[in-house]
Amino acid sequence: LDWATSEATAVKAALEKSGAIIFRGFPVKSAEDFDAFTQVFDYDEFTYEESLSNAVRINLTRRVFTANEAPPDVEIFLHHEMAQTPVYPQKIFFCCLSAAEQGGASPLCRSDLLYAKFKSEHPEWAAMFVERGLKYNTHMPADDDEQSGQGRSWMSTLSVSNRAEAEARLGELGYSWSWQDDGSLVTTSPQLPAVRQLDDGSESFFNQVIAAYYGWKRRDDSSLPVLTFGDDELIPEEILDTIVELSRQFVYAAQWQDGDIALVDNYRVMHGRYPYSGAKKRQVVVCLAQ
What we know:
- There is one protein chain.
- The chain is 28% helix and 25% strand.
- It has eight helices and 18 strands.
- The two termini are 20 Å apart.
């Protein structure tokens, strides 16, 4: 903690250039140790409760919670944290309390580099994202579904206890919605930007395009796609496949060791999770910040 306090300013400056920093070899053994480490950097907290995250998570301290309760064989594809909502964190701290025996790396992808490449090779497509933005259609179950990477219930997601409160909250946020016969809720986000201007003048492909395209489950009985342009037009698969292929050029797979901490600039860097296996339980916990 003394080291982190003395180096916090330098770490923040380095983060602005690299987008992600890994701390290794620190005596971090618990969620409480990790919580204390994150507080040194004096960021404002961003709690799971106040977020609109669609992932099922478990709070371990007020600031620290599990990364995602999805099963080990489920891949979580590249995304900017909560970019499918109007409310998202600026920084993410990850901490590996227990590394997987096989697999389980966290891919990190520089979205500013990805977008620069995409814009250079396909300027007309890039302009479509800037001009039209995106909308996301999300299915929120009536109860938490831990078998899904997007399984958080609508009551938990919206921090409400009944349908009237849910509708009021969605209205405040600019969403449209429809209730399903099984008690679940399908929501459509307001038009959200697909590209974010960064402080250094660069542009980041700040969205959930890859995760939604590859990883989000579509209801079999729903005509809604999980993702569209902001004018409700479908995004051609040729464009989506090109983005996915380009992203692979900028991925660094963070191979976790016990006690590792990573600090990620959520505006500049996407992250995900590769599947894992083995008797040893993988445990990566998270703290979000502003």
